[in-house]
Design brief:
Blueprint: E1 2-3, E2 12-28, H1 31-43, H2 48-71, E3 76-87, E4 91-105
Parallel strand pairs: 1-3
Antiparallel strand pairs: 2-4, 3-4
């Protein structure tokens, strides 16, 4: 599956637009992570526990988006984007979304 953030795929022609696809992940921060984040907030610096959590959530959201695109019969996703938001005080929602297309190589 080709996934791009652009409208066009180099050396490919879009022959059919199949619709939108998305993958959603909601992750809860643990109390241990919140304590570490609070301590980091006092001294500054990267909160590696949260960075890893967000990286993992983005990967999982992308995987789900690609699975949905496969189920729709697509071979590529164009205009892929991420969005995120908070749910309550300790949960984050990560969404990966884009447009599912069928393509063919040019040339």
């Amino acid at each position: 599956m080709i996934v791009v953030t652009t409208e066009h795929i180099h050396n490919h022609e879009v022959v059919e637009v199949l619709g939108t696809t998305f993958g959603v992940v909601v992750r809860a921060r643990g109390i241990g992570g919140d304590i570490m984040a609070s301590l980091k907030g006092l001294v500054g610096g990267e909160v590696k526990q949260y960075t890893q959590m967000i990286e993992d959530a983005r990967r999982q959201a992308m995987d789900r988006m690609v699975q949905n695109a496969h189920a729709m019969g697509g071979d590529a996703i164009v205009m892929m984007r991420f969005d995120n938001g908070d749910i309550g005080n300790n949960m984050s929602e990560i969404v990966a979304y884009g447009t599912v297309v069928r393509t063919r190589p040019i040339g």
